[in-house]
Amino acid sequence: MIVVPLGIASATPTAIRHLPSVALWREGSVFLFDCGENAQMCMLQAGLKRSKIDSIFITHFDVDHYSGLMGLISTLQLQRRDKTLNLVGPKGIKEFVEWNLSFSGVEISFDINFVEVEEKATEAKVLETEDYYVEARPLKHKKFCLGYRFQEKDKPGKVDAEKAAQLGITEDEQFKQLKSGQNITLEDDTVVESYEIVGHPRPGDSFAYVTDTEYCPNAVKLAMNTNILYHEATFSNQLADKAKETGHSTAADAARVATEAQTKLLVIGHFSARYTNLHVLLKEARDAFYPTWLAQELRPIFTDPIHERGILSPKVDLIDLTMKKPNSRQGYSKGPRSGGRPGGRPSGNKNFRPRKGRDGAGSGGNRGNYHSGGYQQRNDRYRQDGGYRGSSQNSGYRGSSQERGYRGSSQGGRDYSNSDRNNRYEDKPNKSITPRTGYDDFDRF
Ligand SMILES: [Zn+2]
Fold first, then answer.
1. Ligand 1 centre from 250 Cα, in Å?
2. How far is the CA of 403 from the centre of ligand 1 (A)?
């Protein structure tokens, strides 16, 4: 299962954070927890198809948690969906959706299976299939609010094919019976017990979605032994009074739930707009529960970290330094040519003009390793180039002390670095570069 935060703001969106919504991807289906404004656009950005939505779970009727719902349903209608949509939420969700549809005179082409949870309910299994079930429990907020737990059922253990062959088990039916825990009798009357062939059942993955709430025992129950707990951390401890007053959690509250529930990974989200630097919240949570991540919009989190390997590709260009002429020139012809370099540059032309300032300490990251010899000369040549410097197209980059963000831009920055590296590497000793992802800087441990 893969969890993708789509919106991590609370109450009001900010320039960089959307209203609450978290997508859970499992075997090709998407389960949406809350549906704030813009959730459907964020899904697109995350590469999640809206047509793959299987179920939507709404926690409560604060507008920021369901303001994207009607827009999404309208899109599904326009996509001519014909599959039933499960829509789970507190009592009233059916009335809300049906009223909206009749208000705008829309007749939808697919069925909605409404599952409403009454306010007096203490717990409810809101969805169940052969492979998984979803459980809801009321949380402690200013209004009736549900937390959810998505639980995969245990998967049967692996079959020891070699041993099965030795014992002469060949029929599919026999394997089926053994897998389901039954013993079988072979033709020569030997009884083969299930445990001889089938390994231990593998526990299913689980995910809990707990927002908005103060600390409460139901949050712990939902999160018990989960692979991932997504918990709100609207405030820091300094504003614990405000958290209590508004029915929200602090980062420390989230960590307390994670500790008591012994979850494997805590992901905090639903941040108050006042926190422009979320590290305050991360630090507070990690002080009590170390395996905590900050939710980052569109950044996927895997219930089984092993699956993550190889899926995130490194964000730096890796060049085999043992090669005399690195084979990295393919990038030249790709990407739009910019106006600053009329007519483009033939591959290997030594007289081309570099596109960006690399003065002194301004060169960030790995560049620091190449501060001598040819590099400096190139810099000098660059400084003399008055026309280039004045180019309005590039002036935006110059002020940046850390050019990293622009390096990969299609303005030609990549072309420049490649060629520059090619020239430089020929007379430099070998040095390996450790691949780093863009996320390494803050939310991984
Ligand atoms: Zn909220």
1. 13
2. 36
